[in-house]
Amino acid sequence: MSTEAADRTADERPAGAEGEAAAAPGSNEDTVKIILLGDSAVGKSKLVERFLMDDYQPQQLSTYALTLFRHNAEVEGKPIAVDFWDTAGQERFQNLHPSYFHGAHCCVLVFDCTRKVTYTNLSKWYSELQENRYGIPVVVVANKIDVDYRVTRKNFAFASKRNLPFFFVSASDGTNVVQLFTEAIRLAVDCKQNPPEGDFVQDVLDLLGDK
Ligand SMILES: Nc1nc2c(ncn2[C@@H]2O[C@H](COP(=O)(O)OP(=O)(O)OP(=O)(O)O)[C@@H](O)[C@H]2O)c(=O)[nH]1
Ligand SMILES: [Mg+2]
Asked: Basic and acidic residues bias located where (predicted)?
């Protein structure tokens, strides 16, 4: 594996970011699964790194297929284990995605506000999500605002058109990263408690398919 998380030894990992294979989604009442989607190099891994480790290394190390992180959070006084599924945005990995969506409770959809094509491609990622895991909450994220803060004056209509929460963030300096993930975790817990319509049927079908 060529990811930074996979390359770290267990001792180097911070508390709450075990980086090991996460528990099967839905296997535990107090576990939620959050997936990250977006083009390669928009900053998905750096955002998770900033949130879980309060760290940021500027080197680019594209995620190889998938990295899993476990984070221990607290929502309304209750402990919650959060599994972050950090997927690779590269085309060559895209045929792996259907399994990533299974059992997800929230999706963090990231674009790079310095590269327009990554914004245009949001609709592609969003359709893929709808096809694989319809109805879960989605948070839209404009990353890299540190490059030029004036970008925060711009209107990115993708989120407002679909009535989705939207955050301007920077993994590099940490702006809004905690706010973003706090909201994503809250929405994931909410989704787990009130699953989207059709979820039950899908779960039964998934279960039957497993046997
Ligand atoms: N200036 C700036 N650069 C950033 C920021 N976040 C990420 N980067 C840079 O963007 C590059 C890609 O970041 P990654 O987190 O690896 O991107 P990714 O979306 O995980 O990419 P894949 O794993 O290939 O899908 C790295 O060189 C980062 O240093 C940010 O907030 N500001
Ligand atoms: Mg990555």
From this structure: 1-15
Q: Which ligand ends up closest to the CA of 89?
A: 1
* CB 63 near ligand 1, within 6 Å: yes
Q: Is the CB of 144 under 6 A from ligand 1?
A: yes
- Positive or negative torsion for Cα 159, 132, 23, 95: negative
Residue with the smallest CA separation from ligand 1 atom 29 is 58
> What is this structure's pTM?
0.84
**What domains are defined for the chain?**
3-194 (3.40.50.300)
pLDDT tens, the chain, 211 aa long: 333 343 333 333 333 333 333 444 444 569 999 999 999 999 999 999 999 987 787 777 788 878 899 999 999 999 999 999 998 888 777 665 677 899 999 999 999 999 999 999 999 999 999 999 999 999 999 999 999 999 999 999 999 999 999 999 999 999 999 999 999 999 999 999 998 876 666 667 666 765 4
Q: For residues 88 and 67, is the Cβ–Cβ distance under 8 A?
A: no
Name the 3-class secondary structure at 138.
Answer: strand
Distance CA 190, CA 23 (A): 19
Q: What number does the ligand 1 atom closest to the CA of 49 have?
A: 15
